[in-house]
Sequence to fold (590 residues):
Amino acid sequence: MIKLKKLIFFSVILFFAACSSQKSAMISSTAHALTDDEQARFDYYFYEAIRQKNVGDPGAQMEALRMCLELDSTNGAVQSETGLAYAGLNMIPEAINAFRKSVDASPANWWYRVQLISMLSSREQYQDAIIHAEELSKIYPEREAVYTMLSSLYKQTGEYDKAIRALDKLETYVGINEYLSFEKFQLYAALNKAKKAIAEIDKLVAKYPSETRYQVLRGDIFMDQKQPEKAFEIYQRVLADDPANPFVYISLANYYKEKKQPDKALESIVSALKNPALPSDTKMDILGQYVDKLLSGDQKIGETEELFKLLVEMYPLEENPHAYYAHFLQNQKRFPEALSELQSVIDINPKNETAWLTSLQILSEKEDTLAILDLTKRGIKELPRIPQFYFYKSMAEYQLGDYEASLKTNEEALLNVESASSAVISSFYGQIGDIYYKLNNKEKAFLNYEKALEQNPANVYVMNNYAYYLSEEKLDLRKAERMSAKTVELEPKNSTYLDTYAWILYQQGNFSLAKFYIERAVDNLEKEHDPGVILEHYGDILLALKNEKKALEMWQKAWDSGKTDEELKIKIEKANLNIENVKENESNNK
Fold:
């Protein structure tokens, strides 16, 4: 926080210094008098330098300044402009050197000193900066800015006592105010001078007795000092005098939290959030801290929802109230309403990535393919670098049978998400491979599977599909086996990967091992998994092991599960016929 203030302060000083450099040229002294001709040339080059700076040509500006310095290297205004030019080019040591020369030329010039102090501070040369700031305080003892500058520099060097003295001096000019009291409070606290720190807040309370937020702060200090009862007494007094004060409820929430009274703490936070006097950004910060606690209070779900609704009504054009209400609705499994609130967030801020992706998550869980397609189309227009939009759009198009559109979406993704991780790029190549295989272009399918594995050699999804399709085409079964074995090694309970491995072993004629893995596949079938293909493969493997009766049982289960294609029907009919013939032969032999 201290560094941030320092940078802002000195940036402002440097800005004013830059704006004032032309004016300072008129009061700058020179070491020797120029002839009329030299003065005319000097003025020409100086104002040419200013003109080039204004048109944004630093090279021409530096050349004009160089000509000025050849005529008079001791001119403070020229050295100041040269320093600013170097600073603009981020040549800080050169800028510092030029500013030193401008100060040497005109030691009493306020802006030259300030420019030098700013540059020295940017390089954390605080002691040198302090020397010049102290010199300024002697030359301009009644300028308020010099004491703010000194205080900031002393804080950087840890000289808190000196920083306080600088602020005390400033206070004699501007009087007691919130900024000075808070600054001194923090400095005294850093020096472990608690009484003096508290005295600064007491000064504010005494000067502004009707300003209850200072009293609340006094109570907060008691809380920090482990004196909660004194803090509570102040909070109650503030409530009696100013019941509309929103900040006292926040402090009360901390008090009740300390006292292990979570219900009362939450009630205080709710009171603060309902208070129209509390700034909206503060409400959003508080709500972000307490939203999970609000959601976990099952006994007060109705009250919690009313709070969210109230905030949405109070701040309809702010995205956070809608986002938090959506979070609440999602928590309550009220997904259509959650999607509506998320859409409000997107309408307010179309670049809110979280709102888009949360909506996509909800629609994916609902398996609403058409809604996913619509959302991702809109999402790509607003945030074309988000990989998830392309991935889910492609999947939706694939599921709807629009393979050409799905292919185009993946190709667009590769152009727009080049900076994505290798794993993400791999997934797009994998989808392209799947689409080409579906389009019966096996050569391009396998080429894209190779690209996918180049990007991510551990992409089990691609390895499985690649291996399975190789086995279906009876191509490079050894390569297919190696890839499939890797998927089983990485996910030993994945029934799909176990099935692929079993099927490749079957294609290689290793029926016993194929039976072992197909049985593992069946054992690990999830409820939501379609078992048809796995059961059919189990039947095929059993038939290869001469167990036609058991094979028929598996094929029949596959058929009953919904896999009712012609090939499976023929297998079942043929097996039934063979078994009937066997029975008939056995009967005749008897």
